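Service request form, structural biology core

Requester: graduate student, group of Dr. S.
Request type: structure prediction, single chain
Budget code: on file
Notes: please return the result as structure tokens.

Sequence provided:
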Amino acid sequence: MNLYTAPDPENIERLNAEPVNARRNRQPLYAARKKVFPKRAEGRFRQFKWIVMLITLGIYYLAPWIRWDRGPYAPDQAILVDLSSRRFFFFFIEIWPQEFYYVAGLLVMAGFGLFLVTSAVGRAWCGYACPQTVWVDLFLVVERAIEGDRNARMKLDAGPWSFDKIKKRVVKHTTWIVIGVATGGAWIFYFADAPNLASLLFTGQAPAVAYATVAILTATTYVLGGLMREQVCTYMCPWPRIQGAMLDENSLVVTYNDWRGEARSRHAKKAQTNGTAVGDCVDCNACVAVCPMGIDIRDGQQMECITCALCIDACDGVMDKLGKPRGLIAYATLSEYASNMALATDNGRTHVQPARVRNADGTFVEAIRHFNWRIIFRPRVVFYAVVWSLIGIAMLVHLALRDRLELNVVHDRNPQYVLESNGSIRNGYTLRILNMVPQPKQVQVSLSGLEGATMRIPEFGKEDARSFTVDAQPDVATSLKVFVTRKQTGGAVNDFLFIIEDADHSNRATYRAAFNAPGDVK
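Core staff response, request fulfilled:
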């Protein structure tokens, strides 16, 4: 029997890496944390993570400084949560408190988006874009730059305290704290004009709540990103426990393909000489050394795995050195893995037999299943995508068609009506006209219905009319006291409409009000 042979695996570097968070090593009750010293990985997934980290951190730190001209009556910060005026600005979009349903819609979209991503590509959010992952990556960059890569950090940690060790630790933790301060500072800039608030912060004149917020976020960033790291994902985050309901047999997850890796051996040539069948895994522990979660992906699917795919990069590098095809560790679906495993083990009757999955020349047999991107577009994923898209389209349409004028009317409660000397009946109302456009507008206030009735606005004089033109200030509610008068006619309560409309007739709002008369109120 001809077995596939490869360049001598004896030359592959063996790493002394222990999967400290593997299931077989996990303590049933509380145990002190074992430090994880991930080795720097190189490869396509590591490069993609660099890109994602630069984009996400760039957006977070720089977004508050982007300017957007909204005219003289509105702030020029592109993204701003203006708590003083209770508004949210996002470039050309302005959200008012009564429009909070947009925020609710965004949260629903975020939920379905997370379901969509998880169903299609597993925990890609956790591995690439989660803030915890991004900041841990940033902190590891600092740690490697100051203390060196994995072996140097392990040696430093195990060694006695010296001036060099103290110096490196002080520089590292100081840099982490500076990053935490920058993180907290960037966060508060979203809630006030960034240049002005930055000036107040550095001169000690900012509000106390600003300093408190920066302090809290500095502490949480430093502790979660620098000290706890993988413990946050394992013990604090609920998503690893929820993701099981989102995954199915066709979801992409990082998988060790033991159907081609087993039986693993560090002495493949000797084993082949002795007639022992071995797989592609040379047990170099490269996948364990680069894992930021401290697990061994060869143990199978684990809750701690965030599918960052760094183990794929590490293993692909080893396969390249051995002249073997990549993919011993790869993104794969459970159905694909199960099919290949059944072939390698004769449907579970034997251990993995390399000869069952390889031809004599070392290539894979035709029966081996490989990933097909079309499997992503299955009904479940399409359903999530359609729901997510419909919510987004509905919000955009409603946003484009929404009125920028609002009217609220409160009837006087005491008295509910007044009998005048000429026999007329007068009702009092308070009108609140909300101009939601960042520029002044002339708004016409008029009555509809209630024949023979007129209204008077005391601040405009003693003139009675069916309509008045009011100056509505930008982005504020204009309050008006209005008296509606009508000859006494008797009968039941009469309904009518207050109508407001801007000069160019682009926005209009109505409010149905009641006109009370003797005999109507009980």
